[in-house]
Write a structure and sequence with these properties.
heterotrimer; A mainly alpha (376); B alpha/beta (387); C alpha+beta (483); A: 376 residues; mainly alpha; Amino acid/polyamine transporter I; 17 helices; C: 483 residues; alpha+beta; 4 domains; five-stranded antiparallel beta sheet; 12 strands; 46% helix; 11% strand; elongated; GerA spore germination protein (chain C); UPF0353/GerABKA_families (chain C)
């Protein structure tokens, strides 16, 4: 296996699209109900926890870009093999691919759960899952360029949904935010951990990196993408805190949707039904990018064809989705996933960064030594 | 060479298409439809407490049957839970009774006194019911209110919805959506309030605002008092207020000598206000409320020389004095009722650290012992088109 | 070539005429197809001139000189002689000569140039292409007097060859686009085809897609505009429509009118068109979705009137909507097939009689009538007939999806549409350009139509060799106020 890869220029994507991809993968089903999880820990200071978690994300993404920059054109699968050797590297790569695959599954199932709760209580899981997976595979078959294009469209078609927060803001009770910073550091930290599930997604940068055209602009665009995500999360969090009382927020599972319940237009009421439907456009890029990343892992590690791998992955996702029946199971798996995500997306990139830098320094010293030996 | 035979991918695509078609066909059979004209669209629901402790639910749906004489369809059933009532109502209807268009929910006084928490909770839990649903307390039995044959009101549900909405938008009564009721109910710092509705013969009237302690109804106040409560903790944009002052305060500015002994009625409208509440002492709590208020004088019952700026200043002073006095009264009334509709608890919590977990008892005790000072700063910015 | 041979080559055709000069079985003979060649040339020019020669001894060189034709008219093979004759030529044969002469003549069939009917505009030239390739080329050459106009002639069809002309400005066009077009036409392996619409289906990037990926126009100004921007034009003998490629989805919503009107008007029109397309796709599905699944979304003001209009309708909303849409489609198809005058009657019958009666009979709600009519109207706004038809067809799956999954179905449909469009290419170039990949500088002549002076760059999509159309400085006045 080659650690670095050469990608045909016709398959590459511009740097700004990498920012879109990262942003779109971060925003998914988490944003529909993250408020309660964080407010449980950090109370009315939850927005501070969101901001801090966002800053942490910026830092991790910085570490990731620096890790990737140490190689000419490698992705996580190549780097792991380089650092840990063939066996361990492949094992870690498989784990990462499975993690991506799990992400796609959980996002899909959670979204279907939301639809079943809010819109169609009797709609069988297998129908909606099949439709969403069909839409995803149809796009993935077009390649990363089409996936990136879809992401771009989905972000531009849904970013305006932030504007409808104007309606709940009419009911704002700004005193709910005060006194600022009442919680202690431990509570804040636990609140930040609660953000994991919502803010992971940037780790796909590890996989799309070789496909990015002008890599010198990558860091800026990805950081912008993360920044937009953080601004949205912070804004929605603040609106939720002033819109709900704490006791009410603790009882509201999908607070964002409850916010949207207050939106109405002269020709249209109950905006949340529209929002849930449009949310399909938000979660589809998530599912596509994760499936693609996972399939790409298998291609890199074992040389399987991308098309075949995607076709193989889909039934597995489908079956797992059908096996998750009750809300409890989904929640448990989401909690587990959140813990895995914390290590896979926050802790591990830092470790990898240190290892890569250390290895490079050693290599440089070695080369320097051999260079010095040559004249003799 | 470009060939036009079916490639193997074409075959698999066709298989995929077949799969899709079969999926779609199956969906038709199992998805949950709620076809508009096969649905009983409940627009208003009334809940009464029966003597045996059961709840009587009365629902009103617009009757869209062109052959029917009545514009509305009424169903009333008795049950223990609101969903149980709905299930029973289905037995009396040719259409599926659904609550997605529910706009007003009425509770009778007896039920409200018992506590609305659970019954509102079920409404809030149901995603098909709007958060912008208006809740109301009705004086007598809502069954009588809804079954009364009104001649002019059309669909009673839509009528009541428009009535409340119009008054909320005109800032005549505080906004009382289900969301706001719930927010206050789950907050240890503010008590909910709902419109208090009565029927006078052929007419339905919003008589005042019902005050709650937690989810229990304790008494009602006039719209004027409700105005004052909102003045304490909230902003006005188009409020209105009327008052009467003795004519002698205007002294020489009255046009006719003989008027001096009478009272002048003043009506202020397009009131925009902004209040700032300071907690100047923590224990016992002392709240310092200062209210800035811009208004327009709309009506005077006595000709005055309004072109003199002194007259407007006198009016302003009188309005301030009147408001400060009434505010103290209304706060006293709330303290007597042991409710905190104005939300002083929120202010208290926001201004003190370590109060996040304030219990209901602590809060009630704090309010009981609290003292208040009001300072109103009124400005009359306009006096109509004539002097 | 003797008569037998000619008859054999021409499948024993009845319209072959063999003129013997002076006497039967003379040495000099004229062959032509009486249905194609201009007989007046034969009798007024060729025969009198030939008579002046000593016919018993004359050689082909003298004949050539006497007739005053160029050497390019020499024909050495029987096959070629025949093929020239199929193309209107008169073949002059001298016995024993090494070659014959094929004298071109005008065809006798063809209609005169008329005003465009499919793509009519208010302002701008009122001239449309006709079925004859040479006339069409003449029109383009006439309005585009430049030496850079490059004309390539290709032939396609294994059984019956059809002439195809590929036109481009060689100093502007991206050679790769020309190569793609040339290659696709040359590699065609079909027996024959007649029309540019059929050719477009053969050489398009994705034949299975509903969306056209080559522009088709009957307007010379549109072709000239495309050529100037760097597009490749394909003309087919026998077709009044010219193909332009590569193209993008947005270009199907642009009309030549946009350049004749002031930029604000043109921009307004363009935005209107796109809005109309979305409306056309959304209106009926939203009605179906709302009434089938999301009755909660109907506002209080609409509730009662909608309920009353629906109360007598016996069908579920999905069937109601499909019924109305099919009626509209029937009316449209009937109007298109019938002669113009009868077509108007169809409009009246459809619009008034059926529309009125159907509501009175309680088959459909009057709100749906408004919605369906608005949707149909919007789809007719499309400046390109092809994209209008596409949109009309897409509406049906959309309505079905709305009837099956409500708002969810509509979004799923749009999502599929987005993926599908993103996967399309036109001559290998992205179809959704400049939306994706995003090139804001090309939005100036995409969504909007910026003032002409600011359109100083060519559309980047065509990858033109010369990026600039003119220098911006010249277009702008750099004067101070009151100077």
């Amino acid at each position: 296996m080659n650690i670095n890869e050469t990608i045909k220029p016709t398959n590459t994507i511009s740097a700004y699209l990498a920012g879109f991809l990262v942003h779109a993968t971060q925003i998914g089903v988490g944003v529909l109900g993250y408020q309660r999880i964080i407010a449980k820990e950090a109370g009315h200071d939850a927005w501070i926890a969101v901001v801090l978690a966002g800053l942490a994300t910026h830092l991790i993404v910085l570490a990731m870009t620096h890790t990737l920059k140490s190689y000419p054109n490698a992705d996580i699968y190549g780097i792991q093999v380089d650092i840990f050797g063939k066996w361990l590297g492949t094992a870690l790569g498989v784990m990462y691919a499975i993690y991506f695959f799990l992400s796609a599954t959980l996002i899909l199932r959670t979204y279907v759960e939301v639809v079943q709760t809010w819109m169609f209580p009797n709609l069988p899981t297998w129908v909606l899952t099949a439709i969403i997976l069909f839409l995803a595979i149809y796009t993935i078959m077009g390649g990363i360029r089409v996936v990136a294009g879809y992401t771009f469209f989905s972000v531009s078609a849904t970013i305006w949904l932030v504007c409808d927060l104007y309606y709940p803001l009419q009911y704002a009770q700004w005193e709910y935010l005060f006194p600022i910073l009442e919680v202690n550091a431990e509570q804040l930290f636990r609140g930040m951990l609660g953000m994991t599930l919502s803010s992971i997604g940037f780790e796909i940068l590890y996989v799309i990196y070789p496909y990015v055209q002008n890599k010198e602009r990558l860091s800026r665009s990805v950081q912008t993408g993360v920044l937009v995500t953080n601004l949205i999360y912070t804004f929605v969090m603040i609106v939720s805190l002033v819109f709900f009382s704490q006791g009410q927020l603790m009882r509201t599972i999908w607070a964002t949707l409850n916010l949207k319940k207050m939106v109405y237009f002269p020709i249209l009421e109950r905006f949340e039904l529209i929002a849930i439907s449009i949310w399909l456009l938000v979660i589809l890029p998530n599912i596509m990018v994760y499936i693609w990343s996972s399939a790409r892992g298998f291609k890199r590690l074992f040389g399987w064809s991308l098309r075949k791998t995607v076709v193989m992955i889909l039934p597995v996702i489908y079956v797992i989705c059908l096996l998750l029946v009750s809300r409890n199971q989904i929640n448990q798996l989401n909690d587990l996933y959140s813990k895995i995500g914390l290590y896979a997306a926050y802790v591990y990139p830092l470790v990898l960064f240190v290892l890569v830098k250390w290895k490079q320094r050693r290599r440089r010293i070695k080369e320097g030594a051999t260079d010095a030996n040559v004249p003799k | 060479m470009r060939t036009f035979q079916n490639s193997p991918t074409g075959a698999s695509r066709r298989r995929l298409l077949k799969l899709c078609c079969s999926v779609i066909l199956l969906v038709t059979g199992c998805s949950d439809r709620q076809i508009f004209d096969e649905t009983g669209l409940v627009t208003v629901v009334g809940y009464d407490l029966e003597k045996d402790g059961n709840i009587r639910g009365t629902i009103v749906m617009p009757s869209i049957n062109p052959e029917a004489k009545e514009k509305i369809q009424l169903i009333s059933t008795v049950g223990k839970t609101s969903k149980g009532i709905r299930d029973k109502a289905n037995l009396q209807s040719d259409k599926r009774v659904l609550g997605g268009q529910l706009r007003v929910a009425l509770y009778n006084e007896a039920l409200a006194k018992q506590g609305l928490g659970n019954i509102v909770d079920t409404l809030y839990r149901d995603p098909s019911i709007s958060s912008r649903l208006y809740l109301c307390v009705y004086e007598g039995s809502t069954y009588d209110l809804l079954t009364y044959p009104y001649k002019e009101l059309g669909d009673i549900g839509i009528y009541m919805y428009r009535m409340i909405e119009q008054n909320v938008k005109g800032e005549k009564i505080p906004s009382t959506t289900m969301h706001e009721f719930f927010r206050a109910y789950y907050d240890h710092g503010i008590d909910p309030q709902l419109p208090y509705v009565v029927r006078k013969g052929n007419e339905i009237e919003i008589k005042g605002v019902a005050l709650f302690q937690g989810d229990r109804y304790v008494g009602w106040i006039t719209p004027k008092e409700a105005f004052l409560i909102k003045l304490i903790h909230g902003n006005f944009r188009i409020g209105s207020y009327d008052t009467a002052v003795p004519a002698k305060v205007f002294g020489k500015y009255t046009l006719h000598e003989k008027d001096r002994k009478k009272e002048v009625h003043l009506v202020f409208d397009t009131i925009s206000s902004k209040s700032t509440i300071k907690l100047t002492n923590a224990s016992p709590a002392h709240f310092d409320v200062s209210i800035k208020l811009d208004t327009r004088i709309l009506e005077l019952t006595m000709p005055l020389k309004v072109d003199k700026s002194d007259v407007l200043q006198i009016m302003e002073r009188e309005l301030e004095k009147e408001l400060e006095e009434k505010l103290l009264q209304v706060v006293k009334k709330m303290q007597d009722m042991n409710v905190d509709t104005a939300g002083f608890g929120i202010i208290y919590r926001a201004n003190r650290r370590g109060m996040e977990e304030m219990t209901v008892e602590e809060w009630r005790k704090m309010i009981k012992q609290a003292t208040f000072r009001f300072q109103v700063d009124a400005t009359i910015i306009r006096n109509g088109v004539m002097n | 070539m003797d008569q037998e041979m000619a008859r054999k080559w021409l499948s024993n055709t009845g319209d072959l005429v063999v003129e013997h000069i002076d006497k039967p079985n003379g040495r000099v003979r004229l062959y032509y197809l009486s249905t194609l060649a201009d007989a007046s040339i034969v009798y007024n020019e060729l025969i009198p001139k030939l008579r002046l020669l000593p016919l018993e001894t004359v050689g082909i060189d003298e004949v050539e000189k006497q007739l005053g034709v160029a050497s390019s008219n020499r024909v050495y093979e029987v096959q070629e002689a025949v093929s020239r004759m199929i193309h209107n030529a008169i073949y002059v044969h001298v016995e024993g000569a090494a070659f014959g002469l094929a004298i071109p003549s005008d065809g006798t069939v063809g209609r005169s140039i008329q005003a465009p009917e499919v793509e009519s505009v208010v302002l701008g030239p009122q001239i449309a292409f006709v079925e004859e390739l040479n006339v069409n080329l003449c029109i383009i050459r006439k309005y585009m007097p430049t030496t850079h106009l490059f004309h390539e002639r290709l032939v396609a069809g294994t059984e019956i060859p059809v002439d195809i002309s590929v036109l481009y400005l060689e100093n502007i066009v991206d050679p790769e686009n020309v190569n793609t077009v040339r290659q696709r036409i040359q590699e065609l392996n079909v027996d024959s085809h007649l029309d540019s619409s059929i050719l477009a289906q053969y050489i398009t990037d994705n034949e299975r897609s509903l969306f056209p990926t080559l522009q088709q126009t009957e307007r010379p100004d549109r072709v000239i505009h495309g050529l100037r921007q760097g597009q490749v034009a394909i003309l087919v003998e026998g077709s009044p429509f010219v193909l332009l490629g590569p193209t993008t989805l947005l270009q199907f919503f642009q009309s030549p009118d946009d350049y004749y009107l002031r930029w604000v008007l043109a921009t307004f029109n363009r935005i209107m068109r796109m809005f109309a397309m979305i409306l056309s796709l959304l209106l009926t599905p939203v009605y179906v979705a709302t009434l089938t699944y999301h009755y909660e979304m109907i506002p209080a003001d609409l509730l009662l009137s909608l309920a009353q209009s629906r109360s007598r309708v016996p069908f579920p909303p999905l069937w109601e909507a499909l019924l109305m849409e099919i009626i509209i489609e029937l009316l449209r198809e009937a109007g298109a097939r019938l002669p113009t005058k009868v077509g108007q009657t169809i409009g009246i019958v459809g619009g008034i009689v059926i529309g009125q009666a159907i509501v009175q009979a309680g088959f459909t709600s009057n709100i749906l009538i408004i919605i369906v009519a608005l949707g149909a109207l919007s789809s007719f706004i499309a400046p390109s007939y092809m994209i209008g038809s596409t949109i009309r067809v897409i509406r049906f799956p959309m309505i079905l999806l709305a009837g099956l999954l409500g708002a969810m179905g509509i979004v799923a449909g749009f999502s599929f549409l987005a993926s599908h469009l993103l996967r399309q290419t036109s001559l290998g170039r992205p179809y959704m350009y400049p939306l994706y990949p995003v090139r804001f500088e090309d939005w100036k002549d995409g969504f909007i139509r910026a003032p002409l002076s600011s359109l100083w760059l060519r559309f980047k999509f065509f990858n033109p060799q010369q990026k600039k159309r003119f220098n911006r400085e010249q277009g702008q006045m750099k004067k101070d106020i009151d100077e």
